[in-house]
TrEMBL record:
Pfam families: Glycos_transf_2. InterPro entries: Glyco_trans_2-like, Nucleotide-diphossugar_trans. It comes from Streptomyces subrutilus. This is Transferase. GO terms for molecular function: hexosyltransferase activity. Residues 10-137 form the Glycosyltransferase 2-like domain.
Amino acid sequence: MNSTNLPTVSVVVIAYNDAGLVGEAVSSALAQGPVVAEVIAVNDASSDGTARVLDELAAAHPRLKVVHRTENSGGCGTPRNDGIAAAASPYVLFLDSDDVLPAGAAEALVRAAVEHRAAVTVGAAVRRELPLHHDVPWMPGLYTPGDVIERPADRPELVRDTLCVNKLYERAFLAEHGLRFPDGRFVYEDFVFTSRVLAAAPRIAVIGDLVYVWHVRRSAAQVSISLDRKDVSNWRSRIEAHRTASRTLAAASPALGSACQVKFLEYDLRMYLRELGRDPAYRAAWWTLTREYLDTFAEADIEAAAPHARWIVRVLRASASPPSDVERLTRLAAEPPRLLPPYAAAADGTPVWSEELPVELEGLAGLSTDRLPVTVDAEPAGRRAVRIRLHDLYGRLAEAGPRTVQLRFLPRAGGEPVLAQPVELRPDPQGGWVALLPFRLGDVAATGRRRGLRRMQAWNVGVGVQCADGTSVFTSLRPRGRLLRRRALPSSRYGVLLAQPYRTGAGALALRLAPGAEGALYLVRNRLHRARAGHGAG
């Protein structure tokens, strides 16, 4: 079967005040070839030049149809519903105005849909961090290419994929079940739509092809709704969307409903907690809202969550307001999770969260070494070394017998880590283990250059710990002391190497390296740009 006799697709593109980007999105849809019979662009009453851009494109491309809304809907659901109503092809595909479809995506999806008689066909998606073009796979490992899922209830973990844009939908299936997005200003409309689709029990075909590139522009003047998390109303909207989705799924399948609840605890809750920030008013409002919602969860769903998520829930429910050690909770919510000292215990030796909140860390004894939320501190030891301290965790690490530690520099733009030589760990009389690690930033910068990283390089810095029993654990570093001081290092390769260690939002050590004068100038300009962006966002 070739592309000329395949069933066709209507690609629905929604746009609001995106004149500078919508053309690229529409062009990527038109470039799919004859399998895309029409591109329906819905302009949600934009006030910039979006309408003009779309009308000019439509004049040049007969397959492009433009729907101009006279009133802004306030969200993404209503314009998508307008697109579904206007679609005439057997299949529908959704595209946002600031994203793109990779070449061949539509044809690959349609071929699988026809072959497997699937009402829904899903492909791979990536979040592309711009301007670095760092691609992060969306939900890696959730799907197996070639799979045909007869009933979503047989795969409850599918509730973790809340995207609507990486899937092809049979239009007759949408019509038969009356499947539409929530209208109006409903922030997480895809959560609800996806739950409605899964509740309708479609056959789902899976392909391995990349079918969607989701552009993430964190420094944009107007970030996307899902990234705009500085106001507690965003969290409130996410809770309401999850509540609606969970009820929809539970009514169709108890297994899907429970999986949706567990997903919230393991993913949504942790994501927002690690971005909690320091504003007392926001923290208090977030804390109250979260506790009220967690009180509605069944105990069985909390028990089904991973241990780290369970501990977070127990601490949140045990405290009416943010406790003094709330930073420990945000670090436990990070990826990888880290439980910062001190480590308190009940009278019988049972590990608990703290003396102030003696919440039992139930399940800690059963965690494998690689899942232990260990903490490793790092502080400077001269200009070319760091001293690290590996904290034990209620004796769990001591059981495994930590033997060596190895620095790992992972490029933030993606790629393989740069590994230093392993160094032997020594027991510390004060508890835990210590080691002195060479911090040869010139070698890291040179490796980055060989890999094509020019001007400023950005690295996450972590460590891998190898134990005597053959187990291992990888975690990030907690910067201490004067480690975060910017340094200009003499370099035989570059003349000068500017190194700027910094603390990420999750409290972990990261590093910017600028080799040579050109790199140093770029780093300074980049820093000024971030400062201006942060000032404007405030």
